[in-house]
Amino acid sequence: MKSEYERPAIRLLKRAGWEPGRSVGIADDLGALEMAGYEVFPRAVDFLREYSGLFLAISRPGEQDAIRFAVRRACRQIDLDWVEVHSELAGVRLIPVGLVQVDQMTVLFGADGHFYGGYVYTFGKLGTDLLEFIENTVQGKGILPVP
User: Fold this and answer.
1) pLDDT for residue 67
2) 4-138 CATH, one of 3.40.50, 3.30.1660, 3.40.1580, 2.40.160
Protein backbone atom coordinates (compact mmCIF):
# COMPACT_ATOMS: atom_id res chain seq x y z
CA MET A 1 0.00 0.00 0.00
CA LYS A 2 1.29 3.46 -0.91
CA SER A 3 1.86 5.97 1.84
CA GLU A 4 0.01 9.30 1.65
CA TYR A 5 3.24 10.97 0.48
CA GLU A 6 3.49 8.71 -2.57
CA ARG A 7 0.01 9.58 -3.88
CA PRO A 8 -0.08 11.45 -7.20
CA ALA A 9 -2.06 14.28 -5.58
CA ILE A 10 0.73 14.87 -3.05
CA ARG A 11 3.30 15.03 -5.85
CA LEU A 12 1.18 17.64 -7.68
CA LEU A 13 0.76 19.68 -4.51
CA LYS A 14 4.50 19.63 -3.84
CA ARG A 15 5.25 20.66 -7.43
CA ALA A 16 2.90 23.63 -6.88
CA GLY A 17 4.86 24.75 -3.80
CA TRP A 18 2.92 23.07 -1.02
CA GLU A 19 4.62 21.35 1.89
CA PRO A 20 3.15 19.90 5.09
CA GLY A 21 2.43 22.70 7.56
CA ARG A 22 2.36 25.42 4.86
CA SER A 23 0.73 28.58 6.16
CA VAL A 24 0.08 31.69 4.09
CA GLY A 25 -1.66 34.97 4.81
CA ILE A 26 -5.30 34.88 3.81
CA ALA A 27 -6.55 38.36 4.71
CA ASP A 28 -7.28 39.11 1.03
CA ASP A 29 -9.19 35.82 0.63
CA LEU A 30 -11.25 36.44 3.75
CA GLY A 31 -11.94 40.02 2.67
CA ALA A 32 -13.11 38.87 -0.77
CA LEU A 33 -15.42 36.27 0.75
CA GLU A 34 -16.85 38.75 3.24
CA MET A 35 -17.34 41.41 0.56
CA ALA A 36 -19.18 38.87 -1.61
CA GLY A 37 -21.49 38.00 1.31
CA TYR A 38 -20.12 34.60 2.41
CA GLU A 39 -19.88 33.42 6.00
CA VAL A 40 -16.51 31.77 6.42
CA PHE A 41 -16.40 28.69 8.64
CA PRO A 42 -13.33 27.54 10.64
CA ARG A 43 -12.58 24.55 8.41
CA ALA A 44 -12.37 26.90 5.41
CA VAL A 45 -9.92 29.18 7.22
CA ASP A 46 -7.66 26.18 7.90
CA PHE A 47 -7.92 25.02 4.27
CA LEU A 48 -7.12 28.46 2.88
CA ARG A 49 -4.11 28.96 5.15
CA GLU A 50 -2.56 25.79 3.79
CA TYR A 51 -3.60 25.83 0.12
CA SER A 52 -4.50 29.37 -0.99
CA GLY A 53 -2.54 30.58 -4.01
CA LEU A 54 -1.52 27.14 -5.28
CA PHE A 55 -1.75 26.39 -9.01
CA LEU A 56 -1.66 22.68 -9.88
CA ALA A 57 -0.92 22.05 -13.56
CA ILE A 58 -2.52 18.84 -14.82
CA SER A 59 -1.75 17.01 -18.05
CA ARG A 60 -3.94 14.30 -19.54
CA PRO A 61 -3.44 12.82 -22.99
CA GLY A 62 -4.38 15.57 -25.44
CA GLU A 63 -5.59 17.89 -22.69
CA GLN A 64 -4.20 20.48 -20.29
CA ASP A 65 -6.01 21.50 -17.12
CA ALA A 66 -5.27 23.07 -13.78
CA ILE A 67 -6.63 23.50 -10.29
CA ARG A 68 -6.22 27.07 -9.11
CA PHE A 69 -6.93 27.93 -5.46
CA ALA A 70 -7.76 31.62 -5.96
CA VAL A 71 -10.64 32.87 -3.82
CA ARG A 72 -10.91 36.39 -5.25
CA ARG A 73 -11.02 35.09 -8.79
CA ALA A 74 -13.60 32.45 -7.85
CA CYS A 75 -15.78 35.03 -6.09
CA ARG A 76 -15.80 37.16 -9.24
CA GLN A 77 -16.87 34.19 -11.33
CA ILE A 78 -19.80 32.86 -9.29
CA ASP A 79 -22.91 34.47 -7.87
CA LEU A 80 -23.68 34.21 -4.13
CA ASP A 81 -27.30 33.23 -4.87
CA TRP A 82 -26.13 30.30 -7.04
CA VAL A 83 -23.83 29.10 -4.24
CA GLU A 84 -26.61 29.40 -1.65
CA VAL A 85 -29.04 27.35 -3.78
CA HIS A 86 -26.41 24.65 -4.26
CA SER A 87 -25.44 24.74 -0.59
CA GLU A 88 -29.04 23.74 0.15
CA LEU A 89 -28.86 21.01 -2.48
CA ALA A 90 -25.64 19.63 -0.94
CA GLY A 91 -26.96 20.05 2.59
CA VAL A 92 -23.83 21.91 3.68
CA ARG A 93 -22.55 25.49 3.64
CA LEU A 94 -20.24 26.14 0.67
CA ILE A 95 -17.77 28.86 -0.25
CA PRO A 96 -15.84 29.40 -3.50
CA VAL A 97 -12.13 28.59 -3.15
CA GLY A 98 -10.88 28.17 -6.69
CA LEU A 99 -11.30 27.16 -10.29
CA VAL A 100 -10.72 24.09 -12.44
CA GLN A 101 -11.22 23.01 -16.07
CA VAL A 102 -9.34 25.94 -17.58
CA ASP A 103 -11.01 28.28 -15.07
CA GLN A 104 -14.49 27.37 -16.33
CA MET A 105 -15.74 25.54 -13.21
CA THR A 106 -15.87 27.09 -9.77
CA VAL A 107 -14.50 24.92 -6.95
CA LEU A 108 -16.53 25.11 -3.75
CA PHE A 109 -15.35 23.96 -0.33
CA GLY A 110 -17.94 22.62 2.08
CA ALA A 111 -18.16 22.91 5.85
CA ASP A 112 -18.05 19.08 5.72
CA GLY A 113 -14.55 19.20 4.16
CA HIS A 114 -15.79 17.92 0.79
CA PHE A 115 -15.23 19.63 -2.55
CA TYR A 116 -18.04 20.56 -4.90
CA GLY A 117 -18.17 22.35 -8.20
CA GLY A 118 -20.31 23.49 -11.00
CA TYR A 119 -21.20 25.63 -13.93
CA VAL A 120 -24.36 27.63 -14.41
CA TYR A 121 -26.63 24.57 -14.92
CA THR A 122 -24.47 21.79 -13.49
CA PHE A 123 -23.51 20.99 -9.92
CA GLY A 124 -21.98 18.04 -8.08
CA LYS A 125 -19.28 16.67 -5.86
CA LEU A 126 -15.62 16.77 -6.91
CA GLY A 127 -14.24 14.73 -4.00
CA THR A 128 -14.71 13.87 -0.34
CA ASP A 129 -11.33 15.39 0.52
CA LEU A 130 -8.59 17.36 -1.19
CA LEU A 131 -6.57 14.37 -2.39
CA GLU A 132 -9.63 12.67 -3.88
CA PHE A 133 -10.64 15.91 -5.60
CA ILE A 134 -7.18 16.31 -7.14
CA GLU A 135 -7.00 12.66 -8.22
CA ASN A 136 -10.52 12.76 -9.69
CA THR A 137 -9.51 15.86 -11.67
CA VAL A 138 -6.29 14.23 -12.90
CA GLN A 139 -8.32 11.20 -14.04
CA GLY A 140 -10.88 13.44 -15.77
CA LYS A 141 -13.79 12.14 -13.69
CA GLY A 142 -15.59 15.48 -13.66
CA ILE A 143 -18.61 16.16 -11.47
CA LEU A 144 -20.02 13.29 -9.42
CA PRO A 145 -23.67 13.28 -8.31
CA VAL A 146 -24.54 14.71 -4.91
CA PRO A 147 -26.37 11.97 -2.99
Assistant:
1) 95
2) 3.40.1580
